[in-house]
Amino acid sequence: MNKIFTYVALCFVAGLFALQAGHAQCYQLGATVGQLSPVLKTPIAFCPAPAQVGAVCDCPPGYVAVGYEGLEGNVYGGMVLSQFKLRCKQLNPDGTLGAAVTVTCSNGTSMLGTPDGPVDAGAGQALVGAEVRIGCAMDAVYGRSKLLSEVYTGQANSASTVMPFIGGPGGSAQPVMYAPNGNVFVGMQTYVEPGPNPAGSAGITAGVAWRYAPILNVSCGAACSIASIAVSNISACNNNGTPNNPGDDTFTANVTVTYATPPASGNLNLSGDGTASVAVGSIGATSYTFTGVSMSADGTPIALTATFSADPVCTLTNNNAGSAPASCSAPALTCTVNSITASNLSVCNDNGTPNNPADDTFTANITVTFSNPPASGTLNLAGTATASVPVSALGAGTYTFTGVTMPANGLLIQLTASFSATACTLTNFNAGTSPAFCSSGVATIPTMSEWGLILFALIIFSFSVVFGMKQQQTLAMGNAGGNMALPSSKLPFDKALYFKVLPVVYLVFLVVFATLMAFGYNLTNADIPGSLFAGGLIAYLVQFVMKSTSDQ
């Protein structure tokens, strides 16, 4: 009887062990994410703009938040946070945490300040709550952590460990906020300062709303796993009709994902350099091939991640699944004008006007060198010389304008070469020195200063002639035995005779100037008034001589 009882007892215990083994428990992060109420900055006169909603910064699927790090020091103070990130670890099926740490995106886009942190929870712990200090910006973050083994069993998150803070003591302390029991922090909704007042404030973190997810106890069936991601049938590069834009060059390839024990629902998702998705109901038992996946042709290693949506922990990343083809587009080449030089300078040509330097010229060859000229339009020369040639007539990288006419003035040759079809230009302020002018520039008729001397001389000469002849007449009368009379102070003047002589004198001046101009002379501003005054004096002398001669 005792033997029978012992046998039954052993069978019962064995059955219990078998039952327990059949219902072994594993842990995974729930897909449903909740969010606590936001804690936001308080707008005041110094920082009047309200907080602006930013990005959602969550840990990767299957990861929990275990710490934080940030930058501190900005326009609000030396210990005020400019931005901060959450630090995440993967939740393993046995309830432990992975060793690798990954960070979320930043709450705040400002890059001001110096690093603060990182701060991580103790071994086997995750963030379940947090306290912040806030004013115009977030001054500090104090985490609350808890053992995952206590979270699994639903113990109160408020019974948690206070973690070291990042930031400083400014702002106002806000109540501690906890995830619901059985949940852990997995991310945050970010808020940023929009600016512009005060200057430099834009992008500083201005608030946070913590996001959380439950830790679930699940049956430990055969675990889903992804074994490999392989790329095949890589196509050639396609420039997509934009041969000068490497940014849109692509290629296609087949991507094969090999796995075991996939979940019964959801999708198999491909991300990274290529994106694709397929319902689990359409995949094979151990592998699936995404065909014709489009990726960027940039010549770099192909990085791909495969994930089952129903089991985010079932994921694999291959950072070198193959090499993408190099880009098949070339950026548009930039047109440049490299140099402008003058050669074969001729001697000065007075153009048949030896007394007019203004029309003196010379010729030279102007060579322009360039790179990547436009396909249409003209190459134009401007400055000391002007010329133009169609782009179709240009040589490879150089063109010479021959026999270009320029002023001969002894100055520096300044030339600008430009293409009409594009903003491609160059100016050379010293392409050489032009020959000096070869016209004498000496007028055969006096200039203004010389006319003044002539008029002065004529006046003196007139007085000398008049008084000389009157004195001679007086002496002659005395020698003849008459009474010697004193010379009259009145200048002798025969009005009628004067106005007969004056037109003749002016006519002579006109004939002289016409003759000179026929040989290239150009009238000056002094010629006409000088001629008028001189003609009047000469006419007076002529009439005086004629009258004196007739009186004798």
Uncertain runs: 1-23
Shape: elongated
* Multimerization state: single chain
End-to-end span in angstroms? 195 Å
Q: Provide the helix percentage.
A: 10-25%
Number of strands: 29
Q: Main beta sheet: strand number and arrangement?
A: 6 strands, antiparallel
Structural class: alpha+beta
- The fraction of residues in strands falls at 35-45%
**SS summary, helix count:** 5
Mean pLDDT equals 86
Compute the gyration radius: what is it? 52 Å
Quickly list its features.
552 residues, alpha+beta, 5 helices, 29 strands, disordered N terminus
Task: Summarize the structure in words.
With 552 residues, the chain is α+β, with helices and mostly antiparallel strands. The protein contains 5 helices and 29 strands. It has helices at residues 2-22, 148-152, 448-479, 495-518, 527-551; strands at 25-29, 34-35, 39-40, 52-58, 63-74, 77-90, 102-103, 114-120, 125-134, 138-147, 161-167, 172-173, 177-178, 183-192, 205-219, 225-232, 250-260, 267-272, 276-279, 287-296, 304-308, 311-318, 336-343, 361-371, 378-383, 387-390, 398-407, 415-419, 424-428. α4 (495-518) crosses α5. The radius of gyration is 52 Å and the shape is elongated. The N and C termini lie far apart (195 Å).
